[in-house]
Design brief:
Length: about 110
């Protein structure tokens, strides 16, 4: 997973700040949960909504896209990629990977300056 770092400031995408928001959202939602297929939709919605609410609360001039994948740990592989055509001086993205004994969670945020 790649990260694009931008200069710190009100008009830039700050990877460290966004990663902290993603981590907070995942931990608040999953904490010590064990994988349950029937709860994955609820968890992914909760994580993405939590991220969007916190990102909007930053009052920065961005449109955000948030994705979240939760996968049971069972030995299966997962490969994912993304590509963006944007202004590297203002727009940015970051991904955060979290895991426990029963599942993986990968959350990505893309920020496009308005």
């Amino acid at each position: 997973m790649t990260e694009e770092t931008q200069p710190d400031g009100q008009g830039s995408f700050v990877v460290e700040e966004v990663n902290s928001i993603i981590k907070e959202a995942i931990e608040a939602t999953l904490q010590t949960a064990a994988y349950q297929h029937s709860r994955v939709a609820q968890w992914t919605s909760g994580i993405t909504e939590h991220c969007l609410k916190r990102l909007a609360g930053l009052h920065r001039p961005f449109k955000y896209i948030v994705t979240c994948i939760i996968m049971q740990k069972n030995g299966a592989g997962l490969h994912t990629a993304s590509s963006c055509y944007w202004d590297n001086t203002s727009d940015g993205s970051c991904s955060y990977r979290w895991e426990n004994k029963t599942m993986y969670c990968i959350c990505s945020v893309f920020g496009c300056m308005i």
